[in-house]
Design brief:
This protein is α/β, with parallel strands linked by helices. The chain is built from 14 helices and seven strands. Strands 3-2-1-4-5-7-6 form a seven-stranded mixed beta sheet, sandwiched between helices.
Length: 334
Amino acid sequence: MNATIKLEQKHIPVLLDELISIISPLYGGTFIDCTFGQGGYSSKILENKNNKIISFDRDEEVIDISRKLKKKFGKKFSFINKKFSEINSIDLTKENIRAIIFDLGYSTSQIKNSSKGISFNYLGKLNMKMGLNKFSAHDVVNKMDEISLHKIFKFYGDEQKSKIIAKKIVLERKKKIIKTEDLVKIIDLVKKHKRTKTHNSTKIFQSLRIFVNEEVSQLIFGLINSFKILPIGGMIAVVTFHSLEDKIVKFFFRNYSENKNSSRYLPELSQKKQLFKLNNKKPILPSWNEIKINPSSRSAKLRYGIKISNSNDFNEFLKKFEYLLNIEKLSKKL
């Protein structure tokens, strides 16, 4: 009997077959699903009776879905309503952890939920809070100063017209920017002559969502804290959906798996400690068939690393992305 739970809102987990093929040699232990969502990965992994899942998600609206899995799988499944950066805040010492999984995308139901206001394709309040948030996108666009908005749009969205859009928002918000369509109209005023495949609002909405949910620090410290609790031989697997996420994940795996000491004459003690073994240096991408069935998978990239040694020193990782972490500190102005 197939134990996979029927997913709500017809959400299709991305790169599911590829992920399962990667972790299949590790079957027979505890797997941590850091981004439970609609339960796609968790449900599939639980098909094997020897597996156990501990899942995290900050979104309270997925709790009902988690209860369905709990009812079906009992003690084999547990759900924690926390940010995945806090993975080291619970006692996992008795668990035989085999893999820690991150799917950094958003589910179909979250995107279509007008109350969340994540997408410019759906009318709703300018919110973007995914759970356990301190402020909303509405707060940012209506209260943040022009320079700060420019930095958010530039560094989190790589928006070329970030400065002009920030200025236009400040001018227009005297009458309040309340709904997603209000912001879209302002962006269109600035980019009205731009004709590309990418929607005018894509990068601005992305940058606001990243800022509101502190996605940069969540990812950076989620990776670091996952590494710390993972035993030798365990795996971290991450599915990303945009270049900023992938840049962070790529650096984390490759910087701590490669020895950059190119000279054989330098003493071995000066060589950096390798923390990961990478079976694939390049990301695993969805097949054309998957993209045809699920177009939202087209930008997905799967990277993974197997832990081969311990370390508590991640200063190089933190230093590399300090400029992105500093953008989050702008929220103190709200």
